[in-house]
Amino acid sequence: MTDFDLVHDRLGTGSSKWSKYPADVLPMWVADMDFPAAPEIIEAITHRLKHPILGYGVAKDELRTAIVENLETKYQWTVAPEEIVFLPGVEPGFNMAMKAFLEPGDGITVQTPVYRPILSAPSHWGLMRRDAALTSGVRGWELELEPFKTELGKSKAFILCNPQNPTGKVFSREELTSMADACREQNVLVISDEIHCELLFDSRHHIPFASLSDDAAQRTITLMAASKTYNIAGLKTAFAIIKNRRMRETFSASRLGMVDSVNIIGLEATLAAYTQAGEWKTAMLRYLESNRDFLSDEINRRFPSINVIKAEGTFLAWLDCTALKLESDPQTYFLENGKVGFSAGSEFGPDYANFIRLNFACPRAILVEGLDRIERALKATNSRP
Question: For 241-277, b where at least 16 C-beta lie within 10 A, e where not — what string?
Fold first, then answer.
């Protein structure tokens, strides 16, 4: 069984996360885990590498069947094997969808804050981004339905991120249904990024948007991957589920020489993830939930001026540092004064400069070190004459 407390040195491994900053900076920014992949996944990759030919890959029927069974078992969502389109990532997927179905000048509704690839994608295709902000309330991050409907009325499409990055919100069936009803009324395309769908806490259950109704199924492009949950993002494998045949054909035609075939090793890893790594996932989620609770308790105890709403899913904490009244934005401040690298709030929307996003998918010792560096940075500033 994996020891999630064990710290693995990732310096010099070509890791994006650990290469961005100098070696004395603790990186807690990009959304990948500092945990080893499940032993079953490593074994499957090792076994495949015993065959010396690594040409272009195609998804085996066995993988399609595994995904179909996974969706039925976990979400009671019936999908046919041919409704699955394999991709080298979720980000290429939502860009393909925008290119395929929208024209320059069309509006697309985006719920903010949201991670930068979604925030930036509309501008790649000349689209008008319509921001509909989530709000923080007593029940956590909440959908404001009327402002959402207003922006949807100016749009041809809506891109949903659920579970939501960076807030960690998991939308309820009631919220999803209200959004689906609005999309039906306005006749808009739905692009649903559900890459964190297996990373839920407190016994929550993910609800695929396309599973809500026949209408939702016919207007939705669902994007999923094993990459976040099983920490295999570097293997560049994801998939779209598109039940509407004409939409699926149009979507596939939009590759336009830009979106190539999927990594042959990633396909093997995804199959192993869905068929063999269940026990690893259960243990990992237990550890993540403990980290989330520890982080929330420590922030409330040590940094009462930092506001955090416990994530309902993902492995990301969205920290509001407004009340600290720092001399610079908090990402820059903690990088320069604490040697800890978070994601800057401004990357998630123009109204979030006083926020940072923290990745807590790491051994507890790294999480503690990150908190200690926050504390040292704040004490150093307070002690200055």
Answer: bbbbeebbeebeebbeeebeebbbbbbbbbbbbbbbb
Nearest Cα residue to 346 out of 336, 355, 358, 337? 355
pLDDT digits (tens, 9 = 90+) for 190-224: 999 999 999 999 999 999 999 999 999 999 999 99
Residues of the chain with CATH 3.40.640.10: 43-276
- Give the rounded distance of the alpha carbon of 124 from its chain centre: 20
Q: Does the domain spanning 43-276 belong to CATH 3.30.70.1130? A: no
Q: What gap in Å lies between CA 252 and CA 92, rounded to an integer?
A: 12
CA torsion angle 281 283 287 289 (round to 10) = 60
Question: SS3 letters for 133-176?
Answer: ECEEECCEEECCHHHHHHHHCCCCEEEEECCCCCCCCCCCHHHH
Q: Is the dihedral of CA 132, 244, 197, 361 positive or negative?
A: negative
What is the helix (H) or strand (E) element at residue 376, kind and residue range? Answer: helix 364-382
pLDDT at 383: 52
CATH architecture of 16-37+278-382: Alpha-Beta Complex (3.90)
pLDDT greater than 60 at residue 24: yes
pLDDT class of 385 with cuts at 50, 70, 90? very low
- How many angstroms separate the CA atoms of 373 and 21, rounded? 15
Which among 300, 270, 204, 245 is positioned nearest to 70, based on CA atoms?
270
Mean per-residue pLDDT for 294-304? 97
**Contact of 308 with 141, CB cutoff 8 Å:** no
CA geometry: angle 297, 376, 323, nearest 5 deg: 60
**Residues of each domain in the chain carrying CATH 3.90.1150.10:** 16-37+278-382
pTM above 0.90, yes or no: yes
Contact criterion met (CB below 8 Å) for 5 and 364: yes
